[in-house]
Amino acid sequence: MRNSQLQPLDYAMLLYFNTILTFHGRKAEKSGKASVTQTHFFI
């Protein structure tokens, strides 16, 4: 981290990745895969 202040781009990227990972996590949950627990480590 450069500083404690979050840059707009950083926030957008975090939000983007969070959305992607949440989506994949939900998809894995429905198919009953164990990859859900792995996904949450990246958040």
From TrEMBL:
The protein's name: Uncharacterized protein
